[in-house]
Amino acid sequence: MKIVSCCRILFVKRAIAKSSFGSCKAIRNVFRRFYYTMIMRRKIGIILIGIGLLLGCVPAKAQRAGTAGRKIQNLPFVDYKLIHFGFSVGMHMQDLTFTHNGYTTEDGQNWYMEVPSFSPGFCVNLLADLYLCPHLNLRLSPGIYFGNKVVRFREYNSGEMMSQNIKSNYVVVPLDLKFSSKRFDNIRPYISAGVMGALDVAKQENSYLRLNKFDCYLTFAIGCDTYLPYFKFIPEVKFCIGLTDVLDRNRDLPNPADIKFTNSLERLRSGMVILTFYFE
Predict the structure, then answer these.
(1) Burial class (CB in 10 A: 0-12, 13-18, 19+), 98
(2) How far apart are CA 39 and CA 43, in angstroms?
(3) pTM of the predicted model, to two decimals?
(4) Are strands 120-133 and 83-100 parallel, antiparallel or unpaired?
(5) pLDDT surpasses 50 at 177
């Protein structure tokens, strides 16, 4: 009995010691984690403070360097004129967006249309710019665009294909609101948005498709004013989204069977991408 009691007492002591050691180890691990956490937070805080000081010092240094080495501004007061004029030349690409309705002819044909590639055209504009405030201008730039669109027709079941070249010469009247950033040396980026009316003065053939003469576009553009010693040179990219259905449905066809192409379309809208170089 004494031996059993001694063994029990010894086992209890070892268990207590083991648990005490485990508790001490757990407490030590907690303190160690807390210590390393504080150290890491301190390091992160130091890094963040260093980044903040760097970000604060770099602009100030760049400003001092820019002030010391800034270029002479060309045409410093040209943007404050109430109105000024210019002209532009450039190139553009015309596109058509087809919305098909799944029309099927009596003999089971389903025709689909697309513009597979773009043909660059030429454009020229005049410009009148009205100053509204330091960052806003109203711009009117009437002009004429020469271009074409090649439409490809494909029959879904047989794979039969044909094409039509639609030539368009647009007389356009764009009206844009131009928002300019702050000028830096001799450059000044800007964005613009507006509307553009277009009248097609080209004589269209009475072929598979014929377009209406008038269209209206919603326009968005991005460009950059570059100030040269005697004038401003401005490259600009403009995106034009057609707002009306330009498909002419009321017409007499030489071959009445060709009405299937018109009947296959629910809506037809035009669009353009324009690269322009202004001289002001």
Answers:
(1) middle
(2) 6
(3) 0.71
(4) antiparallel
(5) yes
